[in-house]
Design brief:
This protein has helices at residues 3-8, 10-20, 30-36, 39-59, 62-83, 87-97, 102-107. By secondary structure, it is an all-alpha fold. It has a domain at 39-89: Orthogonal Bundle (Helix Hairpins), CATH 1.10.287.1080. Helix 2 (10-20) crosses helix 5 (62-83) and helix 4 packs antiparallel against helix 5. It binds phosphoribosyl ATP. It comes from Saccharibacter floricola DSM 15669.
């Protein structure tokens, strides 16, 4: 497999690694430690990383944004594993949306009545 193709599957490989850490020792694996601390902690960490990502985007620091984006994706993958969501579930949802304009989709939503 080419390096480029291999890189495209990095999220799937990360997912498989985190799944394999479910029963690992929290003293040896950060993923195991995070999952042992429970869903609220996982969600909190994801939120913190997302905020750090936003800060770097606003600051215009490209390298920091790349690094924070990787942190966000790692913590998202841990959240998927904890919640029983597979990458293929998310890819399927993205594929379902493919070709539908966001403007069109928003306009088709039922109107809220006060
Ligand atoms: N991509 C990552 C990754 N990104 C960030 N991190 C870790 O996330 C932690 C974030 O640190 P923080 O201080 O923000 O969080 P914290 O240690 O939970 O501290 P608190 O805020 O809770 O006090 C650091 O320890 C980072 O090293 C990651 N840890 C693991 N991975 C991947 O997951 C794989 C499995 O890792 P382990 O589960 O550790 O074996 C690795 O091979 C990597 O591919």
């Amino acid at each position: 497999m080419s390096k480029d193709l291999q890189a495209r599957y990095v999220l799937e490989r990360l997912f498989d690694t985190v799944v394999s850490r479910k029963d690992a020792s929290p003293s040896l694996s950060h993923s195991a430690r995070l999952m042992a601390r429970g869903r609220n902690k996982i969600a909190q960490k994801f939120g913190e990383e997302a905020v750090e990502c936003v800060i770097e985007a606003v600051n215009g620091d490209r390298d920091a944004l790349i690094s924070e984006s990787a942190d966000v994706l790692y913590h998202l993958v841990v959240m998927w594993v904890d919640a029983g969501v597979k990458p293929s579930d998310v890819w399927a949802e993205l594929e379902r949306r493919e070709g539908t304009s966001g403007i069109e989709e928003k306009a088709s939503r039922p109107k809220h009545t006060p």
